[in-house]
Specification:
CATH class of the largest domain: Alpha Beta
CATH superfamily of the largest domain: Reverse transcriptase/Diguanylate cyclase domain
Number of domains: 3
Shape: elongated
Low-confidence stretches: 1-24, 462-476
CATH architecture of the largest domain: 2-Layer Sandwich
Mean pLDDT: 83
Number of helices: 17
Strand order of the largest sheet: 12-13-11-16-17-18
Distance between the termini: 29 Å
Strand content: 25-35%
């Protein structure tokens, strides 16, 4: 839990001059360090989960050196943890594929977008070459800068070898198909199942008798039917296999499952395509991890609210809409009053629960189009797009203050806490998003120093003078 005592002390010392130290910068630095420590604690919990994964998980710096990985990667490459730590990807990538791998990393860095489900080859410590499928995600710091890469991989050597075997022979390998973990199925040109192995039955929870003769449409969500059809049509039209495409479906018991497939044309003795063969595997566990990684990049680890990175994106979209449609965009900076007392008197675990409860309460009173974000410590930022009048923002701010009048209850404990709110308006107070955030922050600090539990609009002068107070207005 973030401790705000140093920050609050810095605010009291902010008026002292001549000591050569910017006390606000000092406080923000200390608070950032505390936040990073808390984040690392939660990240450790996620890493425990990753150690239980069958699929390899790893983190790299921008040079491609391992900084973290799970045991599955050690097993996949045949190296010990000590040998892998700090190792560069060039060590285990075949020389002729190093350039391709480098381009993949560079593309993720340049675009900021993940590169999912690409095939690769790797060389184990014992010299054996294996085939893998990987997904690479950008790894960002608190400021949103890409500082490395996260990856998820899986050894698919068995599947690749089986695909090659299927090209050479048919019936001889049917017994092998029943023993592998990968699902295997065949359909005719209408999409009706003509053969499935036990693994494919297990993936969807149906018996072989229930599947044979049914159409693929029974197992594919309606929104994905066109995509599956286009994929099979491309395979039919080109005669080339499709190495990987994923679908989301539902098992017989109703649970959602993600299946990754490779499609190969099924030909008659004359060479005419009469259907399709597919090898499939359940990637539900990996999909959930990938979704969690994507969420971790844009959401606060404690409250689940949008973090600073996603907030900036929402503000950029909101300002563009305001500019196009003649609306206003309001930014409200909130800070909990005397939050340090809660931590000191009741413990950081209660403080964590309070932060989550505050996030939930704020979300419940805002519009669906609004964004409630936590940017660190006990600070929250609200983005209110499509505001017609400033008076509407005043109503929102008062609604927040009213919501805090009701105590937060945790078992037998009741916590009464207030919040200070600073408000900046686009385009009234400016058009630069970063400056507007600073303006709202300045207005919020002004409230903290003048009684707390109120809101204040930012204007040119936030010095706290009587003249500024009369012109700007402070409302409780």
């Amino acid at each position: 839990m973030e401790n705000k005592d140093i920050k609050r002390s810095s605010k009291l010392l902010a008026g002292q001059k001549g000591n050569g130290i910017d006390m606000r910068d000092f406080a923000e630095t200390i608070e950032k360090n505390i936040l990073e420590q808390t984040a690392s604690t939660l990240e450790a919990k996620y890493r425990v989960i990753m150690e239980d994964m069958k699929e390899s998980y790893y983190e790299m710096d921008l040079e491609g050196n391992f900084t973290f990985f799970n045991d599955a990667l050690c097993h996949q490459l045949g190296y010990s943890r000590e040998e892998l730590m700090g190792m560069n990807y060039r060590v285990y990538i075949p020389p002729e594929l190093v350039q391709k791998q480098s381009e993949l990393f560079h593309n993720v860095y340049q675009t900021g977008k993940p590169n999912e489900l690409f095939s690769n080859e790797q060389v184990r410590k014992d010299g054996k070459r294996i085939y893998t499928e990987n997904s690479i995600f950008p790894m960002r710091d608190n400021e949103g800068e890409i500082v490395g890469f996260r990856g998820i991989g899986r050894d698919v050597t068995e599947r690749v070898q089986m695909e090659e075997a299927l090209k050479l022979s048919g019936e001889r390998y049917r017994t092998i198909l029943e023993e592998i973990e990968e699902g295997y199925w065949e359909v005719d040109l209408e999409g009706n199942f003509t053969f499935v192995n036990d693994a494919a039955c297990n993936q969807f929870g149906y018996s072989r008798e229930e599947i044979i003769g049914t159409n693929y449409r029974a197992y594919v969500p309606k929104q994905d039917l066109k995509s599956v059809y286009r994929t099979w049509h491309k395979c039919y039209r080109t005669g080339e296999p499709i190495k990987s495409f994923s679908i989301a479906g539902f098992k017989k018991d109703g649970t959602q499952v993600y299946i990754e497939n490779s499609i190969t044309p099924f030909r008659s003795k004359e060479g005419k395509i009469i259907g399709f063969r597919s090898i499939s595997r359940d990637i539900t566990e990996r999909k959930k991890i990938e979704e969690k990684l994507a969420e971790m990049a844009t959401h606060d680890y404690l409250t689940g609210l949008p973090n600073r990175i996603l907030l900036r994106d929402r503000l950029m979209v909101g300002s563009a809409l305001a500019r196009r449609n003649g609306y206003r965009l309001a930014i409200l900076m909130l800070d909990l009053d005397r939050f340090k007392v809660v931590n000191d008197d009741m413990g950081h675990s209660v403080g964590d629960e309070l932060l989550k409860a505050v996030g939930q309460r704020l979300s419940s009173i805002m519009r669906k189009s609004d964004t409630v974000s936590r940017i660190g410590g006990d600070e929250f930022v609200l983005a209110l797009p499509q505001i017609g009048r400033t008076a509407d923002v005043t109503k929102f701010a008062q609604r927040i203050l009213n919501a805090f009048e009701e105590p937060f209850v945790f078992g037998k404990k009741k916590i009464q806490i207030t919040t200070s709110i600073g408000i900046a308006i686009y385009p009234d107070d400016g058009t630069d998003i970063e400056n507007l955030l600073k303006d709202a922050d300045s207005a919020m600090y002004w409230v903290k120093e003048h009684g707390r539990g109120k809101y204040k609009y930012y204007r040119d002068d936030v010095s706290g003078s009587d003249e500024a107070e009369r012109r700007v207005g402070v409302t409780s």
